Fold:
Amino acid sequence: MSLELDTEAVAGWAHSHVPGFQGTLSATKFSGGQSNPTYLLKTPTRTYVLRRKPPGVLLKSAHAVDREFRVQKALAGTDVPVAQMLAYCADDTVIGSEFYIMEHVEARVFDQPSMPDLTPEQRSAIMNDMNRVLAAIHAVDIDTVGLNDFGPPGHYCQRQTDRWTKQYRATQTEAIADMDTLIDWLQANMPADDSQRSLVHGDYRLDNLLIAPDAPKVVAVLDWELSTLGHPYADLAAVIMQWSMPASKEGRGLQGVDRAAFGLPSDAKFIEAYCKRRGLPGIDDFNFYLAFCFFRMAAILQGVKKRALDGNASDPQRGLKLGAFVPHFARAGLEAAQK
Structure:
């Protein structure tokens, strides 16, 4: 499937729907990213960002750009920094799929949480703000911002485990015994519903954050496709899960990195700072949430691999590389379960 953007069609639509839009535009697709293809749009007077559903046959409920648009629009004016949402197009005849246009935020993006080009003090400050924003997401008053219907009621972890098990089975390309065992363990060790229900990002990590060009401050949180109402500990565990990965372009983790020398927090210190911000005494059963996050990421990457094999991935080569991590995540999930 072609991911080339019909700029004339976008410009024609934007003239009628994006306030202040003028002139013709050019588009450049951002590299990386395996979910919704994203483009930098340039006009003579302003730059924008367009995010669309990929073309082709997609899994039900996946690539929900309408939900991305809604949640970021709702968060405008809260303590959670987001880009300004400008317009959403539900008509898939314009460019072949739904899309939305938002402001372009000048910022830095760090693919590696080790941030090798920064000083220890700069790294420490950025990680502290990353922690602050995560706590802010979970502190959002969902009634005030109009998101009280943004996710179904009930046990979040049970619901998510059921959902991603179905998604994994629908995209499975080979048998992975560790994944089957992990799914069984999660079902057998599901904690009781403690009634915590907040906005959750679903994929919170450093490379989904825009950092100010000249300050250690998060200026926008991106990639809200997996956001919903759920359990906040799953977001926190997702950060810790990511750091356990190899410190490589594909792994984007901190495995083997001397965190103290780099000015980076240990897992325990990051969790402690989060709990202090939210007034929590600590977190019971954290190993469950960690195992759950490994499972969910394995299921997500299996979908990435399947789309790459089917030819409708945003970046097929990288999709296959990321898909190779599925057995690793399944195995790591079992190790987390046994801690």
Observations:
- The mean pLDDT is 93.
- The first strand starts at residue 26 and ends at 29.
- The longest helix spans residues 286-310.
- The radius of gyration is 20 Å.
